[in-house]
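Moderator note: this is an archived Q&A kept for reference. The question asked for a predicted structure of one protein chain; the sequence and the answer are reproduced below.
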Amino acid sequence: MEDSAAVAGLLWDGWVPRNVRGLIGDALPEGQEDGRRLAVWLAGAHDVGKATPAFACQVDVLADRMRDEGLDMRSARVMGPDRRIAPHGLAGQALLGEWLRERCGWTVKQAGQFTVVVGGHHGVPPEHGQIDALRRHGSLLRSPGPGQDVWRRVQDELLDACAEEYGVRDRLNAWREVRLPQTAQVLLTSLVIVADWIASNADLFPYFPQDSARTGEERVAAAWRGLDLPAPWSPHDPAEDAQQLIGSRFGLPEGAKARPVQEAAVELARSAGTPGLMVIEAPMGEGKTEAALAVAEIFAARSGAGGVFFALPTMATGNAMFPRLLDWIERLPSAPGARHSVLLAHSKAALNEQFADLVRDSGQRIVAVDLDAPEAPRWHPRDTSHAASADLVAHAWLRGRKKAMLSSFVAGTIDQLLFAGLKSRHLAMRHLAVAGKVVVIDEAHAYDTYMSVYLDRVLSWLGAYGVPVVVLSATLPARRRQELVEAYAGAGARGGDGHAAFDAVGEAAGYPLLTAVSHGGRPVMRSPGASGRGTDVVLERVDDDMEVLVARLATELDGGGCALVVRNTVTRVLETAKALRSRFGDEGVTVAHSCFIDVDRAAKDADLLRRFGPPGAARGHPGGTAQATSPGRVPARPPGPHIVVASQVAEQSLDVDFDLLVTDLCPVDLLLQRMGRLHRHRRGVGQQDRPERLRRARCLVTGADWEAEVPVPVRGSVAVYGAHALLRSAAALLPHFVRGEARPVRLPDDISPLVQAAYADDPDEPRGWAEALAYARERHEKHRADQAERAAAFRLGKVGAAGRPLFGWVAAGVGDADDTRAGRAQVRDSRESLEVVVVRRRADGTLTTVPWLAPDRHGNPLGGLDLPLDQVPARRAARAAASCGLRLPIQFSYADVMDRAIAELEELYVPAWQVKESSWLSGQLVLALDDDCQTRLAGFSLSYSESDGLEVTRDRDR
């Protein structure tokens, strides 16, 4: 108890961000001074529930010593399962509440908002039923009979001592009238949890301190120095104007200009009274990422936030963002000796080379240190050209499922944010992780109804915490914009004439568009100009016939050029690639989709960026949009005709540029994203460096029967997107199809009109389409209602009234939530998928890593390394194997097929790999391919190649 209290004070003073301290302190009479006292006191008292018969009876020898002192208790065997009625957190809550009522005159209602912190310190605030059950079993708190008064005296002495030691005795009378916000209750709970975890670490606080001559203060100081947690980021409000700020933080070359959207975002952030939510809508390639980080720096300085969480839709986009985030951090002004904790937050982050470097270079072992020992040398980034940059560390203690998000700077998947809206164990820790940061949400249009249910609830809590949020999108429907703004502002903001201001957000037609709102405030909108870059894209419908497509591409690429063909399913990708290779050869066709092993997928992305990306890609900076206004050397493109056939992986994260686009019909916002890969960068004056035939941007739309009165999308596309979204997209694009070159899609001018037309509540319907659209809409609305209903089952409740205890806060929840395939399925409406590690099985039955793996950066071979079955593989071989993770396609996500597949995969169970020392391969399902890279699984034939990835064929179809 004493250690936890001391750690809580140190956390408050040196680790908790200023905005978190302020939120707690704002609810108390003496502000942050009271906040510190309260946090330390609750941390000191949190384990008082262990001073009860229900807990003390567990170790007979210790229980006997207590009985000798008059603390009577039954044995654990006699007490039986009733012990579970009084877990020590709940028991502590009951004892502290009783003490406040009897010693301090508090009411039950006044006490509950404070004592729930003690009750919830193991991750789940007690429910009313549990509280009532304990009330009916008082003997679990104090044994009846002569020892009852002794138990009471011991418990009261402990609580009296805490009140005196931690300076709250004289404050309790003033705190009686406090109505503690639920947000403050959550943050206090999480702070006590963190203090408890640190104080319970035997390496920092040895179990037998009497063996050391240190005083209590020296012991705590040694542990704190050994832990060595980096302080939160504490930026100053940047003094530079928008142009200087963008230029200095993102390394713009001399003469380059910040984009109008970036300048407007900075100016709006500075003019906003209280940092809140900002929605930035701007075309692809306009530098929204840079604008968001510039705004984040201003918001953090003004709000007291101590970090940034950049949330992205996929692991691939998270990997692409991580180096950009690190570059930005290294350019931030920092005090000498400052360190920032950083994290890549997704399930395969350990395979990311940059993050692995940070983990390895941090090289920290968490132990208490000798107070007289010299300071250990600190790690410094390899790039020493930025003298003002801080050290970046992947702190050893800030790792693991429940603590990692506490790092100051995080890039990760949106799931990590959505988990904050899922009723789950230790939810308070997730709230502490986001409450102390600026949150950036990228690709906001990419989240369906199911995910939006969680996102909107999370935004409502972020608004209540006062967490600054920046939302980014190129193609956000107006209705969704309004929903996001309303969720953050809170229901009360629409009172009076406020509804008109929020309705205006849903009706705004400007583009680019910035929308800002504070919690409880009214929205403000700005419409900056675009950068002046624009592209006219001619749309054309093309029959969904492979021979037609091959012939058309042969004509279009007759003079050379690079085309991108985007298909909505992997099956169509592979079928198309096969047909095109018959005409253009193997060297003229590249395949990209989601069914590659991880290492091949990363190599494929890097190759596409190298061959088809902007100048920045050649230096290893994906998405170098901030520099796009300054022309530079274009990386070498294939000399002859080349076609990339890709799935939806081409829509996000890859800053690639093609001369011609062919795409399956898809929702209009995604189609516009795909168009963003067409003539994305200037190649000579008037695009003169492109083949003459391809100097005008052209998009051929296929994947539907265009001859029917109402277009009929192919079945695979309907399975992915639904008929309603596809038909609405076709309807919105119809004028551009009909008039062709006379009415091209003008980017960026037509982006918002097309998106709003496709997602409007009362859209214009082409003649003869009414019946088909009505039927599709009915099915769509039913699906959305079903998604919302299912998501609401485990969604966190709304922020309750101030003073209302958090009892039952995560009742009927999901237990633990984590970034496993099952965990992600809780916040995404997708079937649970199977992930495997792909290896090669030789003819003699031995296993190796797949043979085509490239050497590592030190030249060490990775392909064909032995994976022995009777011992833990060498670390390099095990990591190489783990880098060959593969998510099996949807065919294996149906219950009967999945069960059969798991049963067959478990036949290759290697006991020697299921040990602590085998961290890379323990618990993994292993898929072994033969020397021809083939195998069979659950009634399917699987074939894999480095060029085409995984191909799956049902056995009966062969």
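Archived answer notes: The chain has a mean pLDDT of 89.
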